[in-house]
Design brief:
single chain, about 30% helix, 5 helices, about 190 residues
């Protein structure tokens, strides 16, 4: 919570609009870390758009497409599974580093409990479908045939379903593509 409160105080001092997107990777500690961060942010007046379990790229997508001033991705990145941390960004996914606010936030945390004015709110939002649509915009399915892709980005106990088109003609309908720890995708999945 202290990290969330410090971010909120920092934003208030900078006269930001105080709206953040928060995503958390699939590590076992990430959702708990995210909930504590969100509690600190909202108890200090920040509006939070919680996109739930998300790889870093999905949170970056939110930073570009949602009406936010910044965001936090809870992730241990490339480190071993027992580590976790937070990537703090400004709108547009610009990283927050020591010279651009991180040192100030650290000092606020070290100084002890502080709270910005106001009570924020949480809005849960699923951006996976719009992100997938955005990514499909970069793909020319006809140029990729035949294609096989393996995706391994989710936790072992996680699964999502994505609605995909059966054919370029919408009359052919859609189907569910199950995304789990390891997904094998054939070229037909990109129609």
């Amino acid at each position: 919570e202290a990290i969330g409160r410090a971010i909120a105080v920092y934003l208030q001092r900078k006269k930001r609009h105080n709206r953040m997107v928060v995503g958390a990777d699939g590590r076992l500690t990430s959702r708990g870390f995210a909930h504590a961060l969100i509690d600190g942010l909202t108890s200090s007046g920040v509006e939070v758009i919680d996109i739930g379990r998300a790889p870093t790229g999905l949170t970056y997508y939110g930073l570009f497409t949602l009406p936010v001033d910044g965001g936090v991705q809870i992730t241990g990145s490339h480190n071993p599974k027992e580590y976790n941390g937070a990537k703090l960004c400004k709108a547009g996914a610009a990283p927050v580093g020591a010279d651009t606010g991180l040192a100030d936030i650290r000092r606020l945390i070290e100084r002890g409990p502080s709270r910005a004015d106001g009570q924020g709110a949480i809005r849960e939002l699923n951006v996976l479908e719009s992100y997938a649509e955005h990514c499909r915009g970069f793909i020319d399915a006809d140029a990729l045939r035949p294609l096989k892709v393996v995706i391994t980005n989710m936790a072992e106990d996680e699964a999502h379903a994505l609605e995909v088109s059966n054919h370029p003609d919408p009359a052919f309908g859609t189907r569910q593509l199950l995304l789990t720890r390891e997904v094998w995708i054939e070229s037909e999945d990109f129609m």
